[in-house]
Amino acid sequence: MYYRSAGQIPRKRHVQFRQPDGSLYAEELMGQEGFSSDASLLYHRHLPTAIIAAQSVERPPDGLVPNAPLLPRHVRTHQLDTGGDLVGGRRLLLANDDVRISYVAADAASTLYRNAAGDELVYLESGSATLESVFGRIGATAGDYVYVPCGTTHRWLPAAGAGGDGQGAGEPTRALVIEARGHITPPGKYLSERGQFLEHAPYCERDIRGPEGPLTVDDDGPADVLVRHRAGLTRYTYQHHPFDVVGWDGCQYPYALSIHDFEPITGSLHQPPPVHQTFAGPRFVVCSFVPRLFDYHPDAIPVPYNHHNVDSDELLFYCGGDFMSRAGSGIELGSMSLHPNGFTHGPQPGSVERALGAKGTDELAVMVDTFRPLALGPEAIAAEDAEYAWTWAGGRRQPSKV
Ligand SMILES: [Fe+2]
Known about the structure:
Layout: E1 4-7, E2 26-31, E3 39-44, E4 51-57, E5 73-76, E6 91-95, E7 99-106, E8 112-115, E9 120-126, E10 128-133, E11 136-141, E12 144-148, E13 154-158, E14 173-180, E15 223-229, E16 232-238, E17 245-250, E18 255-258, E19 277-281, E20 284-289, E21 292-293, E22 313-320, E23 335-339, H1 351-355, E24 360-361, E25 364-370, E26 375-376, H2 378-382
Parallel strand pairs: 8-15
Antiparallel strand pairs: 1-17, 2-3, 3-17, 4-16, 5-23, 6-7, 6-26, 7-14, 9-12, 9-14, 10-11, 10-13, 12-18, 15-16, 19-20, 20-25, 21-24, 22-23, 22-25
The chain binds fe (ii) ion (FE2).
């Protein structure tokens, strides 16, 4: 992302920078790809290295199973149990070696946490929450993607029950969580050689909301931080609270992007999903389907053609509006469909005819296309609508012949 600075920083990097009592601030470089990519410099009151305890945190096995027999799947996320926090309450639904996709309906503040295995993208479906991190504070509400870079110590404070953003009192903050094994960036096709958003990009710098900060807390510690790393989970106890940064600058920091600031690209005939691309991850992409005018050719068919993407599994999370192409399939708000590689999918029967002449759509959906197969978690299977696979045939399922 582009350069930002917040709070107090010294005139030059890596020079003496003193606190009011004359002691030195502790400089920390947080950077990607071994000093060879984007980085930020943070200035701490205390040593960010001072741990006084470390403990492995056991977690139950993920319980992932292959998508077999190979089927299109429909998971009703609103049937999942609610409660917990935006980190610990995540219910793993789908995963492969590149990405883990979870759903959470949170009503509690998280512990301090950082993911050392990759970047995270948290899409708020409803409700609101605040992300507090070493970089500062970001307020997020329904429709926001919140990007949290790998290695960022942070915590999530949902505004559950506040009734803000139209949510009812006592309603949890609902979110889709995308955890990458690696980094998530804006698609390179939207950026100039030096990283500016180009004119054809569906969003740009003005839509990116960085942290308000810096953020320092009076609590001097000790403080526990849960760290997800490649081998599991570890809880560190730090001598001092990590929110002690008086200033930072650089190109790596959390930010928010509202799906409502994504300006759709439309055409006279059906535009393919790459026009909806919002982020790029390691062997996956994230796309946003937002309210838009439909194709304006007089003979246009506004819904997608049947398609078989031989290189990807397609996951679609339906989070607003009316899904014309899925009428009669049982898809509802909060539904998640998985159309895997190996299965040709398309509009449900009658959808094409019903769509003819339609001028626009108010649908809102987040899509994650992965280039390796997604395995299913136990909670995805528990909340699955097992009839979905047969809806293109009008629900007429026949017993398998052995
Ligand atoms: Fe598709």
